[in-house]
UniProtKB/TrEMBL annotation:
SUPFAM superfamilies, per database record: Mss4-like
Protein name: Aldehyde-activating protein
Database matches in Gene3D superfamilies: glutathione-dependent formaldehyde- activating enzyme (gfa)
Domain spans labelled CENP-V/GFA: 2-116
Family in the record: Belongs to the Gfa family.
Keyword Lyase tagged: yes
Length: 125
């Protein structure tokens, strides 16, 4: 079981089973919400237990997905696609060690102009 939380601890979560290979999303929405690019892992929703739901706020950021964050401290924790039985969880919110490494970069055509991606991982436009 892998556990994590928001910055203030009002929202906690636990994942049973393996974490999916994480990606770094460089899309404009992730950059605006996180302040940089956002690294997350996709896991089956059935494998996730979330506590502190009263502090969890969902924002419908597009017709495609909702973003979950702590209404107390503002931590951006989850990205939930509509119509799928999975949820993306912020890598930075996990208690370490996670035992996994970044797998790829996505939406790199939208990346900020102030940084370069130089880690040699696959990049998807």
């Amino acid at each position: 079981m892998t556990k994590g939380s928001c910055l203030c601890g009002a929202v906690t979560f636990a994942v049973t089973g393996d974490l999916g290979p994480p990606d770094a999303c460089h899309c404009g929405q992730c950059r605006k919400q996180s302040g940089h690019y956002w690294a997350s892992t996709d896991v089956p929703l059935a494998n996730v237990t979330i506590e502190g739901e009263a502090a969890l706020k969902w924002y419908q950021s597009s017709a495609r997905a909702r973003r979950g964050f702590c209404r107390t401290c503002g931590s951006f924790l989850f990205w939930r696609p509509e119509g799928r039985d999975s949820i993306a969880i912020a890598m930075g919110a996990f208690d370490e060690p996670t035992g996994i490494r970044l797998h790829e970069h996505i939406f790199v055509a939208d990346k900020g102009d102030y940084y370069e991606i130089g880690d040699g991982l696959p990049q998807k436009e």
